[in-house]
Design brief:
308 residues, mainly alpha, Farnesyl Diphosphate Synthase, 14 helices, 70% helix, 1% strand, globular, Prenyl_diphosphate_synthase, Polyprenyl synthetase family protein
Amino acid sequence: MTPSTSTFTTRLSDAARVVEASLEALLSDNAAPGELARPPRLMAAMRHAVLGGGKRLRPFLTVEAARLLGAEGKGPLRAGCAVELLHCYSLVHDDLPSMDDDDLRRGRPTVHKAYDEATAILVGDALQTLAFEVLADPATASDPAIRSDLVLGLARASGLGGMVGGQLLDLSAEGRYGPVTMGETDVRLLQMMKTGAILAFSVEAGAIMGQADPASRRKLVAYGHALGAAFQVADDILDREASAEALGKRTGKDQEKGKATLVDLLGMDGARRECRQLVEQADSALDGFGPQAQVLREAVRFVVERQV
């Protein structure tokens, strides 16, 4: 393990612990100002969906991008937690019987299995709205322009032109709405929207919190897009090569449903080559930030080399 890799691993694990504690506080049973009550069953199911697992890569990216620009503390952490809450909502809904119909997530029963389908739908709804509440709260940033920028960015990354639209494209790729042939351009767009948009915004949220100048923000967004694309290609490779026990979720779903991935279109060697090219793109986007960007450089390597 090189010194830089050691630093990255330490920072990632440290961030995961802090994020976990912050998420636990956000999901307490105590009603927040303006709330009438927090139903115990809903809160328990939300905690089941969010706590006790995950690498917390998205909030880590937010915190580290903000740190790169000199912004640290509670604000970037809260912004990262908001992105994680929204990500967890997407997983809960993605696991539903009407979507991917999965029984396992992070090695545990999915929310609709541990509770029921109606509760899972409400959990997703509540996590999504809580994410935006966290971003809109002055505790995240005293400057209303920063809060507005964060809310707008997450809405666009997660909505019809981002994650939700990508999920619809994903369902279409299964042939649910009629026969479909997916070419390389189609698969790239689907992945960019469904998975890449939120990962890219995780980095951009850090740029917003750090009040990046326009040129620096564009570079960080470019880095985020390259990392997001690399994440999905690596995920497709893992889906073919890793076991369900190792991943903590069902594997081989795309093959079962006849849905094309870049592994199908490029071949395994081509997919690995694609990952290497995306690492190079991410590296290039960070040129000019100096040695302080090393942790973000290691992050994209972690994404393509991870085994779970």
